[in-house]
Amino acid sequence: MKQYEWVTQSPEETMNIAMQLAMRLQPQDVIALEGDLGAGKTTFTKGLAKGLGIERNVNSPTFTIIKEYRGRLPLYHMDVYRLEEMEEDLGFDEYFFGDGVTVVEWAHLIQSYLPKQLLKVRIHHEGEQQRKIIFQPIGERYEQLCKEIVEK
Ligand code: ADP
Ligand code: MG
């Protein structure tokens, strides 16, 4: 399966990759973020928000599972860490199939609710400031999206 990798040396570089992606996002796009605590999932989401023209500060939704931001497109930011394996349906489809873009931290915890096609983004913590970012497109829409980003 084709995947795309980058190595970044700062939070800004990670945000820049996310901004390249954000420019090309459309309604109903879904990004599934994976990576340990402190890997950079929220940092990546900040880059998406910036790229969508969202000025509000994005932080991890600790008490709310889902936060909504307004930009060029609405951004639905989910952090489902606290759901653990409960697999509780919080009406996820309204977001996935809504008017905006959805980004999910710890997406595998709601595996059974995720759409079949999505962009999986894995972040590996390789050093204090070094991260490896891997895009794995699942489905034609996301394969196309990844090609556009690398061929820009
Ligand atoms: P997560 O949401 O995965 O738990 P966060 O984005 O909240 O992770 O935290 C990542 C932390 O790592 C931040 O403090 C960020 O400044 C720092 N960091 C250092 N280098 C990088 C990098 N290359 N990419 C992303 N974050 C980085
Ligand atoms: Mg986070």
From TrEMBL:
Places the protein is found: Cytoplasm
Membrane-spanning ranges: none
Stored InterPro entries: P-loop_NTPase, T6A_TsaE
Keywords: ATP-binding, Cytoplasm, Magnesium, Metal-binding, Nucleotide-binding, tRNA processing
Molecular function terms from GO: ATP binding; metal ion binding
The keyword Transmembrane is annotated on this UniProt entry: no
Coiled-coil region list: none
Pfam families, A to Z: TsaE
Highest taxon of source: Bacteria
Any Gene Ontology CC annotation: cytoplasm
One GO BP annotation of this record: tRNA threonylcarbamoyladenosine modification
Main subcellular location of this protein, as a coarse class: cytoplasm
NCBIfam families on file: T6A_YjeE (TIGR00150)
Family: Belongs to the TsaE family.
Protein name: tRNA threonylcarbamoyladenosine biosynthesis protein TsaE
Organism: Thermolongibacillus altinsuensis
